[in-house]
Write a structure and sequence with these properties.
Helix content is 41%, strand content 13%. The chain has 75 residues and is α+β, with helices and mostly antiparallel strands.
Length: 75
Amino acid sequence: MAKYKVTPRMHEIRKQQGIETSKELAEKAGVTEPTISRFDSQKRYDIDVLVSVSKALNVSIEELFHIEKNKETDQ
């Protein structure tokens, strides 16, 4: 079991910043729209994509995720 539960926040941050569509963010980040669309369903991320998206949204890579300790491994 994983030590941490990691939930992507990219779409939440995008909307807070007024970026309406995944296509708009993809253009701003210099990645493809499918890359943005798959962000929430991925388990592993390419560092280049993480850096590009974090720079486009002006947040740290860590801020792209809600990270909490997994209660089942917290002993």
